[in-house]
Amino acid sequence: MLSEIKNYKSIAAEKKAQQWSKIPKSWRIPAERFRETNNVMDIPLTCGILNEIESKITSDHDATGLLKKLRAGVWSVEEVTVAFCKRTAIAHQLTNCLTEIFFDEAIERAKKLDSEYCDSTAKEKILPPLFGLPISLKDSFQVQGYDTSTGLGCYVNEPAKDNSALAAMLIDLGAVLYCKTNLPQSIMTGDSHNNIFGRTLNPRNKLLTAGGSTGGEGTLLALRGSILGVGTDIGGSIRVPAVCNGIYGFRPSVGMLPHGGVRDLTPPGTDGVRSTVGPMATSIRDCELFLKSVLEADTWRYDSAVISVPWAGLKLSQKLRVGVALDDGVYTPSPPVRRGLKLAVDLLRGSDDIEIIPITLPDVKLHYQSLIGFLTISGSDHYLEQFARTAEPVIPSLKASGLLSAPGTTLQGFFDLNVRRAEAGKQYLELFRDHDLDAILMSPAPHTAVPLDTWASVTYTSLWNYLDYPAVVIPVDEVRDVDLVDDLSNVSFGADDERLYGSYTGPEQYKGAPICVQVVGYRHKDEALLKAAGVLDSIINGNYIQQ
């Protein structure tokens, strides 16, 4: 009966109070002072919470570099963990990026790692691969003793009895888990907003979305409360927040990394397009570090559904052939996005180690429609039933997406979707094979971060979920004064395209928003993709040494 339902508002109030109690008083900032500050990127270093060493620990290194410092004993695991917990607390107060907070447990684990491996009696012990590295997780990963609510009231106060497969593996690899991060109601929109934890804000511009569905991770990494986090991606959920926050985000092939114990809100058994686990980071080499560490650790022991692809230690010894798609045939890139891709391509053309091949992506609109068919195969009842348990309204971005109005399909319709995807797989195999491509370079979206609740389409990212191709986002620039609005005559693909293209109003509203590119590889060639992407990133971002 409705009278017996605990309303989401009281659940949210209790959960937010619990969060606040987990932040030590000495780590709290006068958040109201910064409420009207649109860009809060500098505040972690200027608010007075971090000391000089903590600022250095959290600011000066990517995960690969920090691991070297930890292994060399420059800082203890406890020092590093406390530094990141403090910076994460600041980031959360500025942007509302967290769900579950377990700083105290993380610091205790750090002390144990120091004691086990760094005491004089433990000098002969071999350090685990991710020794002492703080890693943040999207809320949908089970962590023993903590909720996996995914921002839904009906799952609050149901602490996980076990760790998810990846959380268990990361602990075994020596990592320190210390928080989980925010995501949208349904885990299916471009705005990380739900009725329990509220909305995560973009630290560069609070008027623009932080992205979704792994937007809490994106924001936390942008503010360097984390330098290596883990998300999931079913249509762009790692890559969209990477675009919005100017970080690196890698969507691996399905099954490459352990996924067991992740709460997906798609109806159980509807495996047409599956979610995949992947890293979000501040460097491309950290994406490779993460993949290498996991693949070398017997993934099959943690997850029965994983594909046990070994790490091969590939070396690139030939010229890379990179196919460049200027658009996806559905939406025309906005002026800053077009400029960012051209900037990247021009830099790559200047290298003797890269060959650029212009390509056209076939039938993306048709494939996108099929992807939506897979994601809405049983209609909306599954989602609405979960919302109704605590009388939750539908958030604006989910309502605008149209996912809840999809009618679902029949069993024959499901068969037809599978047939169409098999044909698409052959089509894109031919594209890779006929052009002898090592990778595809394109934009990850037709626009940068957009105003709240207006991220309307994921054609640029979800094509690769539909085909199950690995893809990684690389930041290349940001919106500048030169990115002026241009004429709608540049629009190529009809009324919907014209409407989206016209939403770019010029650099005043979007100035400083990150511009990124996306590099795509062939299915299950994830290691080869990251090797190639590392070369492209080093050329684009200026640290390449020509062989």
What would your notes on this structure say?
There is one protein chain. By secondary structure, this protein is α/β, with parallel strands linked by helices. Helices cover 38% and strands 12% of the residues. It has helices at 8-21, 43-46, 52-59, 63-72, 77-95, 103-118, 165-172, 215-222, 239-245, 284-295, 335-349, 364-375, 381-388, 396-401, 411-434, 459-467, 495-501, 507-510, 526-540, and strands spanning 98-101, 134-138, 176-181, 193-194, 198-199, 228-233, 248-251, 276-281, 320-324, 354-358, 439-442, 471-478, 514-520. Strands 1-3-2-6-8-7-12-13-11-9-10 form an eleven-stranded mixed beta sheet, with helices on both faces. Helix 8 (215-222) packs parallel to helix 9 and helix 10 runs antiparallel to helix 19 (526-540). It starts with 7 loop residues before the first helix and ends in a 7-residue tail after the last helix. The model has no long low-confidence stretch (mean pLDDT 96).
The Cα radius of gyration reads 22 Å
Q: Counting H and I runs of at least 4 residues, what is the number of helices?
A: 19
Query: What is the CA-CA span between the terminal residues?
Result: 70 Å
Please describe the biggest sheet, giving its number of strands, its sense, and whether it closes into a barrel: 11 strands, mixed
Strand order in the largest sheet: 1-3-2-6-8-7-12-13-11-9-10
Name the shape in a single word.
globular
Structural class: alpha/beta
Number of strands: 13
Q: In percent, how helical is the residue content?
A: 25-40%
Q: What value does the average pLDDT take?
A: 96
Q: Determine the strand fraction and express it as a percent band.
A: 5-15%
Poorly predicted runs of 5 or more residues: none
